[in-house]
Amino acid sequence: MKRSQGSPRKSIPDRSRxxxxxxxxxxxxxxxxxxxxxxxxxxxxxxxxxxxxxxxxVEQGAVPREDPFSWMTEGREWIxxxxxxxxxxxxxxxxAGPAGTVVAKxxxxxxxxxxxxxxxxxxxxxxxxxxVLALGVVAASDRFRVRPEVLSYLLFAxxxxxxxxxxxxxxxxxxxxxxxxxxxxxxxxxxxAPVLVGIYAAGELGDRFRRRIAGRPRGRDRLLVLAxxxxxxxxxxxxxxxxxxxxxxxxxxxxxxxxxxxxxxxEITEFWPPWRHSGHYLWAYWTMLAAAGLLVAxxxxxxxxxxxxxxxxxxxxxxxxxxxxxxxxxxxIPVANAAxxxxxxxxxxxxxxxxxxxxxSIPVVSLGLVFLVAxxxxxxxxxxxxxxxxxxxxxxxxxxxxxxxxxxxxxGRGFSxxxxxxxxxxxxxxxxxxxxxxxxxxxxxxxxxxxxxxxxNLEEELPDVSWCLVNLxxxxxLVTRLEHPDSPWVFAYVDGVSAVYVRRxxxxxxxxxxxxxxxxxxxxxxxxxxxxDPVLSRRLGWFYFRRGDPERAIExxxxxxxxxxxxxxxxxxxxxxxxxxxxxxxxxxxLEAAEGIFRRAAREAPQxxxxxxxxxxxxxxxRDDREEAIRELRxxxxxxxxxxxxxxLLRELExxxxx
Length: 659
What we know:
The chain is mainly alpha-helical. It is 60% helix and 3% strand. It has a four-stranded mixed β-sheet with strand order 1-2-4-3. A hairpin with a 3-residue loop joins strand 3 and strand 4. The longest helix has 37 residues, at 83-119. Residues 1-12 and 512-527 have low confidence and may be disordered.
C-alpha cells in the first residue's frame, strides 16, 4: 500500500543527527549556567581567616598548633584539618588575586558535576538526565562559595565515579585511599570517604540477598573488596599532621555540636533545614528531590541497592541541613541516570519526542537564567547580597571600616561579630571570637550572640575592649545599647556595612565625616545592565533610626526606595520612622506619609498583620475615625496578630460602639 501524500517522515539517521546536536547544546547550557552561578564576588565570610591561616602556614612552613588570631583564646590548642586547602588558597590568591580564585572555584565545581554525570552515563532519556543535572546545579548554587567544601565536592564526586567504574575495573578502588589522604588534609568532612565506600559495600550485601530471594545466579561478589577499600580509606584519614585528633575526635565533637537543640544548630544558618530558608535555589532543590525520588521509586526493582541507600542517606542529610544539598545533588545525578537505564518496562519509558523537546528547552532556559544571574536580578530578587563578578564584595566585609581603624591607629582590643572578625584577622587585628567553631568555647559564642543582640552590656562582659565594630546587617539592637545616654561609647565611623564605636576615654582624632558617604555605591555598576539594590542605603537608614535620628533615616530610606521599591518589611520601618519624627516635631505631614507607606505595605504583603495595626492607630490619630480603626484591627486579628495591647484596644472600641 502506498503512503498518503504529505510531508515524508524523517529518516532515523536524520533524527539521530538532530538528537546528536541537541545533547552537546544542552550540556553547554548546563555548564554555562554553572559557570555563571559560580562567577560571584568573594562573598563567604570564612575566606579571610582561612587565607590568613594559609599565609601563616606558607611563611612559617608548619601547620598551626596554637591559636594566634583571637585575644580570647590565644595560645589554646588549635586543630586545623583544612590546612592544605588554606595554604593552597593563599598561594592562589597571592598569585592570581580574587579573579583567579573565582576561576579556580568554577573549574573545580564543573569538574565535580561532570564526574558525577559521567559516573553512570545517561544511555537513555538524555533530556531527563540533563534536566536533573541542571536542576542540581541550581539547587547546589547557594553553596558555590570559596570554601574548603568545594574541594570536598570534587573528591566526593571522584569517589562516586571510581566506585561506579570499579564494577568493571576493580583497579579503580586503588585510587580511593590516596584520595582519602588528600581529603583528610583539606576538609573536616573527609569522614565521608569511608562512609561512601561502606554504603557501596552494604549495597553489595543487599544485592546478594536480593539475588538469592529472586533465585538468580549469584554473580560477581565485590563485597570483600569494597569492605577492604572502606577500611583502607578509614585508615587513610589518620594520615594528617594531627593524627587521631583530626581524624576522629574533632569530627565527632563537631557532629555533636551541630545537632538539633544546640546553639550552633539554632544560630548558624547553614545548619538549618531547607524550609527555614528562602532563595531561588530551593525550588530547584525540591523539584530535583521529587524528580529523582520518583525515578528511584519507579525503577527500584532494577536499581542496585547501593544507589537506593546512597540516595536515601544523602536525601535525609539534605533535609537536615542546607549545607548538605550539594552532596545529595552529586549522588542524585548518577542514581537518576541508573534509574533511567532501568526503565525497560514499556509503560515506564520516556517518549522520545518528549525527551527531545526537553533537550531543546535546556539551553534556552539556561541562557535565560544566565542573563538573570549576570545582571544580578537573580540575587537582588531573593534578597541576597551576593553579586556576579570576580572581585571582593563590598556589601559583605568591613573593608573601609578596617581601613579607618588602621589609619586612626585605634589601640587596644576590639569586639566584632563572627563575619567581620574574619576580615579583621586577615587585616592583622586580634579578635574576640570568629568562625572557628572547633576552637572557641560555646560560652564565647553565646556571649558574642548576646552582645550582638543587645541583651548584655559590652563594657560589662568584656571590660578590656576599647573599640567595637558593629555589623549593620546583623547587630542593629547593639547600636541602640551603644547609643544610650549613659553608655561609655562614642560613634566614630559608618559606611553602610559596618559602624565603629570607641571608648569615650580613648584618645581619637576627629572621626571621618559620615555626611560624605555616597549611598549610590550600592548600585554596583558593571559592563552589563545590573539590577539596582540600594542595600547600603537601607542599612544606613536602619542605623540612623537606631541612633535616634529619624530625619537622616528617612532620607536614606527615601533614596533607597527611589532606586528600587522597598520590600514590605522595609516599608514598615520607613513608616515607623515618619511616626517617630512626628512624635518629635509634631508635623501632620509625617503621619500622612506614614499612612500611605503602611497602606502600600498592606497591599504588597496582604497576609501580614502588622501594617493594619499601624493603620488603625493612624485612623484614630489623624481623623478620629473609630469605624476605620475597628476594621483595621479586626483585619489585624484575622491575620494572626497577637499583640495583647492592640487586641485590648479593639475590644474597647467595640464596646464603645455598642453603647
